[in-house]
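Listing S7. Sequence submitted for prediction.
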Amino acid sequence: MFSFATIAPVVIAAAAVADGPLSYEYMGQTDGAGRAALTLVANEDLPPFTVVIRGDGQTIRKKVPGMRAGSRKKIAWKQRSRQAHYEMSIESDELSATFEFDVLRPVGKAGKIGNLVVLSDRDEIVEGHKVRYRAPSPLSSYEYKVYDTRGNVIAEGLVTKEIGTGEVFEVTWDSPAEVFMVYVKAENDFGGFVEYKLVPWSVEIPHTEVNFDSGKYDIKPDQEWKVKEALAVALHELVGLQKVNEAVGAQITPRLYIVGYTDTVGSAADNQKLSENRARAIAKYFYDHGFWAEIYYAGMGERGLRVPTGDNVDEVRNRRALYLLTVQQPAPGGQIPARWRKLADARPMPANFELPPYPERFLKHKEERERQQSGGAGAGGGGAEPSGGEDEGGAAGAGEDLGTSAGSPDAEAPGGAADETPPPVDGAPGASAKGCSVSGARSRAWLALCFVLALARRRRPA
């Protein structure tokens, strides 16, 4: 009678006692169906024997009616646990052998492992200092970094824990500084990983109400200073974003969204067209004066009233506009439209660009923004034809794959063509006279989520 020594477990594939009467081979992990397997190789003629494999809470017993030299016998079974240690023995009057091995059951895979789902809204992220994610598949660890709007890392960490499919994990931080980006990289045990760059950064640009002539949407010379001041504020934000991009090594591309609103005086159709054309006029001014980010515009007409009124009510607070600088199309709902028209693509910063002075009337806004960025108290408010054409709907920005915020109710899509001239409505200030003033409220509807999903294949060491 002869015996085999106990063999230490291996990871990928093993062959034991190749020069003895019997060898065995096995894979260090289960197949796609979760089956573990062991293959016996006869190095000489062998009499009948029984193979007993114990482990993983089960016992596998197989009778082998002898083997001829060079023949192979495969034994397979379903593995229950993620990792199992097995002890195998050969039972026979003439044969005796024992050896041990380990098998992993993959719960993930290398390469693409799905998308993380962000469950938090903007309030929870910005005010609550927390982001909740749902795992698309089993994960074994995640690392994170939280950046403020000056490019500083205000929180970072590595968490090692088992996270099942559909389970929720969260990233939290204590710093009161304004958050620019939350970066998360999650991995499984088999070389798969996913990266997510979440950018809750969004700024509502303050501006002064623009007064338009009745039934018109051209910006009069005596009103131009109002748009010029808003442009200056937006340019300061744009330059600041470029500096943060350099600091964090990102390529976050911002977009400018301009929405026009009216009161309820005049017909709804006329107000819709007028609000859209006035929003386009403001957007075109930004483009013509060197604003280099993507620009979109939309009209809401009588929809999205800040102050609810009946029909034909002259309400100045409803005659307004919204200038929003963000990284992703705002989620529709409430006062945010579902569809946008694209005025211009992003372009390089103009040659010899000089940043204009910050408007004095908005210095308080700037101070509040700086306090917010540093974690102090105070709330932030938020020439040639364009090269991009006028495309309906939003388009993904260059350099990053961007995610969208979810869970917001849909708003009705704006109607009317952007270049149509609306018929005049005599004596109707809502559809004609005054059009734009800033909205100071920070809407939860425009949580902008940006993500970059990068997947790679990484082999585990054997």
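Caption to Listing S7: primary sequence and predicted structure tokens for the chain studied. The longest strand covers residues 153-163. DSSP finds four helices and 23 strands in the chain.
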